Amino acid sequence: QVQLVESGGGLVQAGGSLRLSCAASGRTFDRRAMGWFRQAPGKEREFVAAISWNGGRTYYADSVKGRFTISRDNAKNTVYLQMNSLKPEDTAVYYCAADKSLWRQVYLGSPVTGDFGSWGQGTQVTVSS
Fold it and tell me: For 5-40, how does the pLDDT look when each residue is reduced to its tens digit (9 = 90+)?
């Protein structure tokens, strides 16, 4: 298992930027794809971005494509989410997650919560208009 701790959330004006970090502990981080999900009040948790175990492939929800960038540093056991041109509709709790499987390179379709077995506690992102 992988233990995950998110940081970097906060309050930002529309059009601004934030960088989320997810620090992982556990020996298998560098063998697992990682993802970011978000959950707004009254809504289901939704996929935001994912990255394969070696960073070779990235996946994005249509709503964030071109604005958000996921990356990872396996030497630091950390995955990042750079969020630019933020919109009020990006307001949510953002969760980092580690894939259940090892060595995943490809997701068939959009990643879903069921693909991931370890979750962080979440970090709040609030975008004011």
Answer: 999 999 999 999 999 999 999 889 999 999 999 999
Two structure tokens written together for 124: 């709040």
Three-state DSSP at 115 gives helix
The rounded distance, in Å, linking the Cα atoms of 31 and 43 is: 31
Q: What is the DSSP letter of 23?
A: E
DSSP string over 30-84? GGS-EEEEEE-TTS--EEEEEE-TTSS-EEE-TTTTTTEEEEEETTTTEEEEEE-
pLDDT digits (tens, 9 = 90+) for 52-78: 999 999 999 999 999 999 999 999 999
Helices then strands, counting H and E runs in the chain, come out as 0, 11
* SS3 label, residue 119: strand
Task: Give pLDDT, residue 106.
Answer: 84
